[in-house]
Amino acid sequence: QGTILDWRGKFGWVQTAQPIDHPDAARTGGKIYLAAEDVQEELQGVGAAVTFFVYVDGNGLGAMNVRPSTKEAVSEAGQTPVTAEGLEMKNAKGGGKQKGAGAFKG
Length: 106
Prior knowledge:
Blueprint: E1 2-7, E2 11-16, E3 20-21, E4 31-35, E5 49-57, E6 60-68, H1 71-77, E7 82-83, E8 88-89
Parallel strand pairs: 3-7, 4-6, 5-8
Antiparallel strand pairs: 1-2, 1-5, 2-4, 5-6
């Protein structure tokens, strides 16, 4: 889970609620890349609390299946750091990624 930090039309950045223990996390100061096609449900814009899955590809860490956060998701997530073993691997062509609605208010 995390918070939308920035949105630039077709992409943005998410700040995670827990640190991610992965070598690529330092490349962007801990921020996670978010593409519009990875947004599954309409978001309220910058500052919105979200849940998502983290993937790693040749460009670094990214967020996919991004949705507005719910209280249940926040309490289930706790404060456990995400480790490299928990990240979904994705090929350079985006294979295996589910395309989303890309809905974003901002």
